[in-house]
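Q: Convert this sequence to structure tokens.
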Amino acid sequence: MLMGVRARRAASTAGTSLDSVVGRFGWPVLLLSAALLFQLMLSLVMIRGAWLTADPLYYITERGALPGSDEGLLASHRGHWLSVPFLLYRVLFPLFGLSQGWPYSLVSLLLHLSVVVMLFASLRRASWGSGMAAVTVVPVVFLGAGAQAYISDHPLPLLLSLALGLAALLQFSIDASRVRVATGAVLLLLAVMSSGVGLVVLVTTTVWLLLRRGLRAAIMGTAPAGLAFLTWFAAFGRDYDRVRLEGWDILALPKLAWVGATTALERASGVPDSGALLLCLLVGAPLLLRSLPREARDLAWAGQVGALAQLILSAIGGGPEGYPPVTESRYAYVALVLLAPSVAVLVHAARRAGPRLPRGAPLVLSGVLATTYLLNALDLQRHEADAFVSVSSGLRDRVVGTLAANKAGERVLTARSNGLDERMNVKLVTSKRVAWTLPGEPADARQRLEAESEFFVGVSPDTFGLFAPRPAVSVSFDQPLLPGKACAPYRTVSDHPEIAVDTGGGVEIAVKSPSTQVTTRLERNQRVSTSRTWDVASGTPVHIATTASDARLVVSFDRAGEYTICKH
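A:
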């Protein structure tokens, strides 16, 4: 009996404590906090085993974290001004090295959560109650259609620009004092210095200031960032042409923006073919709802213009067939975040205009919609996480394999991979200044062979200094290849001739052919590497070499005809 009394008292105390917590912070703040914590933990679990992708490795090795290999803070990266992210990586690398990728991913995740918090605060400032603000931003916490922005590590500059821009907007919305205006202007300047998304938040903030404070306030708040960007672009930004939509192709701009917006909304909702309807509702709600507070309407309009700016920039960078860039998950993230104030307006309109439902029905309907949205969002997150783990683990395997080949005395002949990983310079990543921070796991035979095929094979108009009298065989020509260091003409008897050379401690051949592409691969102990394709000039001698030891170099050509093959 005594135990029963104590149990009832404990339950009563726990209930009182929970009530006091809810009463102190309110259920909206607790709901948002729980969602943020859940997403953070879930994301870290999803990306277990991931390392880094090529962009962060480039920022670390070639943009200032390593003395002597710095291209400068102001030089553009693929047309972007990224001075602030470069400085951030100069801090992160000495702290965490490259043995693990999770510290860098954690920064991206925390920036995503910061974006959500800034958005929540901005909605509260726009006359929305805490409840409506929480209902609007909790879906953003789990935003599956934009999951690449925070699940992967390479869009960190994008997140940084968006977080800084929303922080600037929040400062401007508090009051018009000089301190707030100056703080907002500085934050906006930092946003522009973090990525191209800085221009998007600059447009968003300019529209908001024009609607809320007038032309003078808009100039005071945004002119420093705008002038700084124009100055940077004139001095440094023109060395990379990001404009892919030119001439009459500009007529495709509305279609591309429409495709980007509707695709993002359709993927976010998980409902097939719903994007057009959702976009029309989001755009129309602030226009048609008369009882809407002006603060809420102005924020929704500013967000819509900002989302449009993001879609236009993506379309211009993608060209007339620009669907991949304009529908890319990380860019959809920016547009959907900026459309969140319009979502609040739409939810408010639905509550006012919706039919009266039986008691309890709204709660059940809301639960069904929330569950459906969450399951779709988590599924999209899972796919992004799998892709991130696969790509980053592949890079780690190549780096580990390169370390093993270096230890065996082999020399890197090609510092960069082809494809999207070309931004990683494996010579710098595995240099003595960095090697001590890399994963310490030993390389297996597959990892080493793949790394050798990618980085320890070279194709160039110039010699690598590796000519050696190694055995070479081929059945693709009208006569056997001459032994030793012979140099002789041959005629092909197949459309895609192939030469196999034993590497020994390193080997090189020179070939003059009508081919425009050369494909290489390595074979060792019944293992075959992934092939790599090289563009070459037809009719010009090219040198093909490898420092991979005790293997076989197999070289394929894409054209038949007259060949001259030299081994000296």
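The domain at 456-566 is CATH 2.60.120.260 (Jelly Rolls).
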